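JOB MANIFEST
job_type = single_chain_structure
chain_count = 1
residues = 338
[input]
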Amino acid sequence: MPSSVMPTSTRSDGRTPPAAVSATGLRKSYGDKTVLDGIDLHIPAGSVFALLGPNGAGKTTAVKILSTLISADAGELHVGGHDLTTDAQAVRAAIGVTGQFSAVDGLITGEENMLLMADLHHLPRDEGRRVAADLLERFDLVDAAKKPVSSYSGGMKRRLDLAMTLVGAPRIIFLDEPTTGLDPRSRHNMWQIIRGLVSGGVTVFLTTQYLEEADELADRIAVLHDGRIAAQGSAEELKRLIPGGHVRLRFADPDTYQNAAVALRETTRNDEALTLQIPSGGSQRELRAILDWLDAAGIEADELTVHTPDLDDVFFALTSSTVPSQADQADQTKENAR
C-alpha cells in the first residue's frame, strides 16, 4: 500500500504551533551510505514525538545530530528556538540526552553520580545537593542513593540516568531507546516518568523499537525507512493508512460453517480452523450489519472477533522493501512528468 505523510498539526487559530525541534531537509551520509535522506520534522513544545524504524534506519543518527553530538551534511535545523549550526552551545544548554545504554558510573553511589552532574552544570553546592535530593526522591531512588550503582537493577540504572539528565532542568529531552532491555514492569514505570515530564511542559523526542511504547506515549509518530520518513502522524492516523481490518467468525459445527461460507460474500475461508474473515473497518455500523445478516440467515457463529490494524501492521507495511515511501512516489511522479 502506498504510504503518505500526514500534515503537521495546527492550532485552533489555524497556525502551526511553535516547534521545540524542527528539521527541514536533514541529510547525513557516511561515505557512499546515505543514512538520512532529506527528512522533515516538526515537534511541538510539550509533546512526545516517537521516531520508529528498523535497526540501522538512522534513528540514533538523527538524535546525535539534533543533540549536537555529530554534524549534519545539510538541512535547516532548530532546537529550542536555536539554530543548530550557528548556536550549538545554546542548544546544548536547552536539552538533555539519555542514550540506549546507561551512562552512569557504577563505581560510585547514585547520590555521587547526581552531585557530579550538578558540578558539571556549575550549580552552587547547596543548590546541587537540593536538586539531587529532589530528583532521587522523584525517581524513587532515595533508599539506594548511598549504594554503589553497580548494585542497581537495570530499571534503577535507567531511572538514575534520566534523573541525571534532568539536573540541568532541560525543556527538551532526547530519549534514545530508553527502555531497551527492561522488564515489562520497569518499562511501564519509565512510561509513567515520561508522562510526568510531559505534563510539566517538557518535550520528549523518543526513539524506540517497542511499537506499544510509541502507541502508549507519543502524540505524533514518524516511521523512518531507508533514510526517509515513510509516514508520520498520530497513532490513529497511521493505523488508518493500512488496510486489513476484518471480522473473524469461528464455527464449531462444520455444517454451519459451510452454510455461512456459501452465503457470505467477500470472505476469506479457513476450512481447517472453521473460520471466515470478513473485511471490515471495525465500525459499529459494520458490526451491526454483520450481526443483522447472521440473524436474518439463521446462522450463529460461536465466536466473533474484530481485528483493526495496529502499529505492528503499520510498521511492517511501511518498512517493507516493496512499499514506496512518499518521497519515492514524488520522485516517480517527477520522472513520469518528464
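[summary]
The radius of gyration is 25 Å.
The chain has two domains: 19-239, 246-307.
exit_status = 0
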